[in-house]
Amino acid sequence: MICSADDLLEWKDFPKGLRVLLLDEDSVSAAEIKPKLEEMDYIVSTFCTADEALIAISSEHESFHVAIVEVSTSSQQDCFKFLESAEDLPTIISKGHECLGAAEFLQKPLSEDKLRNIWQHVVHKAFNAKDSALSKPVKPFNDMLQLQQETNEDEDKKLMGIEISAYNSEFDHEQSTVSDKFQAPSTPQLKQGCRFLDDGQSNCSLEKEHGDLEGESKSVETTCNNSVAETTCDNSVEEVSVMVDPSLTPKEVAVKEENSVERSRSGNSLSCHPQKVEKKAESKGDNPRIEAPNPNSCGRKTNRKIKVDWTPELHKRFVQAVEQLGVDQAIPSRILDLMKVEGLTRHNVASHLQKYRMHRRHIVPKDDDRRWQHPRGPTPRVYPHKPIMAYPPYHTNHSFTPNQFYPVWGHPSNHHSSMQMWGHPGFPTWHPQDSWSWNTHPWMHADAWGRPMMPPSPGPCSNFPQNASGFHSLHPFEECINSPSNSFDFHPAEELIDKVVREAVSKPWLPLPLGLKPPSTESVLSELHRQGICNIPPPPTHHQC
DNA sequence: AAAGCAATAT
DNA sequence: AATATTGCTT
């Protein structure tokens, strides 16, 4: 059965009580999945054979909201048979290596999150049914799910908003941007999902079934066939599950996919982009590489050159190469050598370098350069009230005017709206090797990754405030843990901490970096006492410089 | 030939 | 919007 929108609206504690049909020939795996589902207050009925399941469906047709079918290669026919007979029952096929015109891939093993989210397919289906509540107010349901909703969109978009928000609410650890909304309703887009396979969370989502509803919306179309799915996703995924439109037979799926290819050719299809950069997980120590177009896949017709997706990781490599070479020596060919990214061309690098340089130039206005490059110049202005950021080496403080943000070059992100990151003193977090804020710190003040600038002659009586109230440091922490790409490089490297400490010890006259607090008088005195130094001169009286 | 830049195309 | 391409100069 298909659960109608009306049903959902009246379903008080949805998705509790969702009736799940679990068809799995492997009783062991069924025994693993079932309790997980039951923990989520789903009502699970397991079946070992398609026939049993079909009998159950035909006899208790109203009894299931969603089906999960684990299908082995040998039982594929059974699977199709089940799909046909199951008609409108949203069915998630959990399968081995093949992709059956997928609406969604779920990486196995099926985690709690993934299982928990199966209700979303019921919602999706409910609101995409021909005579669903398309024209009905959706607010109640939205409220019920405690979802956020755009208020200025038309009804269709609202519907999408529900579904998308719902998905996002479950995947709120994933990045979610406005543009993403219409690309991957349920899970991170394939582009992301496959790229970050090593994060253990990512799923690949391909959406194929509601083009008629969305019109020109940017849902990620299913344009991959088996080979694409494998080439793009198989790096480390052992198995995927596949969500197919329950109302479609395999043939129909195929037809729809063809249409999707046509529709998405104009540029927004991500799933199918053989041109996309795919890189192996760096955690495995492999060099990233640019995937060559797959001649067997949907990219066959397009002669476009590979379009490099400068992912944060790729960009990081780029930046590392540039820094290794030094800005002056960094030319495309050398950067290319250092980056060791298979398939990347010098042109790609040159293009990126051009942008990179322009950006750097833009965010370090000449005015500032002149002011800071000659600290002995005409009485450098010091802003005691201004925030100072301590980045390693810690004495290269960056001074800037609050509110004076420069545009940040990065992927579009709703994090732009969270630029008010000031006011978390003493959090010595930085990304030592990622000085270029690429999506990772979209809110970061430009100066933070611009040219290092020396404070004007910091002496024993530095004007730079050192206590917490004088500092406004950024607080990247939340961002780091929220974004999957960030966890990647969030390592307050010990060497750096050591370095900072060493520097602080060797140059005691400099202001301490954020995060390092001067020892308390008491602890110093007791330590001196412990070492037998009892004759301590009184501290110098405070004086102005 | 490679680099770098700006304008333009996709 | 991001990236590629092109055309030009160095």
Automatic annotation (TrEMBL):
GO cellular component, one term: nucleus
Protein name: Two-component response regulator-like APRR2
Keywords: DNA-binding, Nucleus, Transcription, Transcription regulation
One Pfam entry name: Myb_DNA-binding
InterPro entries to which the protein is assigned, alphabetical: CheY-like_superfamily, GLK1/2-like, Homeodomain-like_sf, Myb_dom, Myb_dom_plants, SANT/Myb, Sig_transdc_resp-reg_receiver
Segments forming domain HTH myb-type: 302-361
Basic and acidic residues bias spans: 253-265, 275-289
PROSITE patterns: HTH_MYB, RESPONSE_REGULATORY
Domain Response regulatory: 19-123
Cited SUPFAM superfamilies: CheY-like, Homeodomain-like
GO biological process, one term: phosphorelay signal transduction system
Location in the cell: Nucleus
Highest taxon listed in the record's lineage: Eukaryota
Region (Disordered): 248-302
Keyword DNA-binding: yes
Keyword set includes Transcription regulation: yes
Transmembrane segments: none
GO molecular function term, any single one: transcription cis-regulatory region binding
